């Protein structure tokens, strides 16, 4: 019998989990989980229902297990991004909404800084249906990109509705550039040689890859399709490759030809939401987590996600594993062992109270 790549070692009590972040302070490993909602007693199952006036639990790793050690206020949580600027440590949080129905999608996103042994809010951003933050640097410049927005009947934006890029001024982030997408989901930055790329995923306006020209980000390539969720870049044999997840269709592998990205492989069917690239020794693995198919009104919870291995010019499926409307996968190494934390957001019955899972990665 072959050894499985993923060995489940712990279930984390979460509710409507959407993303996780991990970091170390004073040799202690921490994990935070953004949570969308908890179930309301007597309310019929609905993936966009529930009580969003909740928090993001914080966990501390002890041995091979995480122990809850606090929480951050994060209503309707979608994302937590950990990053550092010099010796300073930050957590950027994003929540799509607040309330228990009706919901308010015009909210404040908080940026926390680690001060005197605790996370302290140090800046707030007026956001609309906020989804994900990405922190990245270009030379000595530090940026923080926010993906946000929805186009839903009866929901009006009183806060800025387009996705935005902020730049660090030394004590706070100020608006640097906007992107005219209406339903942003994610940003991803990658440096290939001297070229800096910034990919933007959008559900309705088409997703795009932008290129840094020294002053701002300009369009390199537009993908005119609905359902964009995320991108990932990697290099192999000196070539630049890119993955793009489309929830409504499939995940696509592209190769850069020097001018644009050219499609080379389709991975999986509809339902993909997030990716995690893992380098282990000389091998490259891809974890693709799957969320839902159907519609928000009649969703079909995806119960299986996949692990692929790079085979020189394509990915090969090597393992599937059980998930439940999975939303993110976060990899880290602790004590010489690699782990993978996968967040699950809905049960098969479309209830929020479903555990997320910590795996040992055996490759």
TrEMBL record:
It comes from Paraburkholderia unamae. InterPro entries: EAR, EPTP. Keywords: Repeat, Signal. It holds the Pfam family EPTP. This is EPTP domain-containing protein. Transmembrane segments: none annotated.
């Amino acid at each position: 019998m072959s050894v499985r790549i993923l060995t489940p070692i712990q279930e984390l009590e979460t509710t409507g989990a959407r993303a996780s972040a991990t970091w170390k302070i004073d040799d202690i490993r921490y994990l935070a989980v953004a949570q969308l909602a908890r179930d309301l007693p007597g309310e019929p199952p609905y993936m966009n229902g529930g009580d969003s006036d909740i928090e993001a639990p914080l966990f501390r790793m002890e041995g091979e297990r995480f122990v809850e050690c606090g929480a951050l206020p994060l209503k309707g949580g979608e994302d937590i991004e950990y990053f550092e600027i010099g010796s300073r440590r930050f957590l950027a949080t994003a929540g799509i909404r607040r309330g228990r129905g009706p919901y308010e999608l015009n909210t404040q996103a908080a940026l926390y800084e680690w001060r005197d042994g605790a996370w302290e809010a140090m800046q707030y951003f007026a956001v609309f249906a906020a989804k994900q933050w990405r922190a990245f640097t270009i030379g000595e410049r530090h940026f923080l990109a926010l993906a946000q927005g929805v186009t839903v009947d009866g929901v009006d934006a009183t806060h800025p509705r387009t996705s935005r890029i902020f730049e660090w001024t030394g004590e706070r982030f100020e608006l640097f550039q906007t992107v005219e997408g209406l339903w942003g989901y994610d940003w991803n930055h990658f440096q290939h040689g001297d070229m800096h790329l910034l990919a933007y995923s959008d559900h309705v306006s088409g997703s795009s890859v932008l290129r840094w020209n020294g002053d701002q980000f300009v369009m390199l390539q537009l993908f005119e399709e609905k359902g964009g969720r995320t991108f990932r870049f990697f290099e192999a044999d000196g070539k630049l490759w890119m993955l793009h997840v489309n929830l409504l269709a499939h995940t696509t592998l592209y190769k850069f030809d020097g001018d644009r990205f050219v499609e080379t492989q389709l991975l999986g069917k509809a339902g993909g939401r997030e990716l995690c690239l893992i380098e282990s020794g000389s091998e490259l693995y891809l974890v693709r987590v799957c969320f839902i198919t159907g519609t928000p009104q009649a969703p079909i919870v995806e119960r299986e996600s996949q692990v692929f291995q790079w085979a020189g010019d394509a990915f090969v499926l090597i393992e599937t594993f059980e998930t439940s409307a999975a939303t993110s996968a976060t990899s880290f190494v602790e004590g010489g062992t690699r782990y993978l934390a996968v967040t699950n957001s809905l049960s098969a019955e479309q209830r929020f109270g479903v555990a997320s899972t910590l795996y040992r990665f055996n490759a």
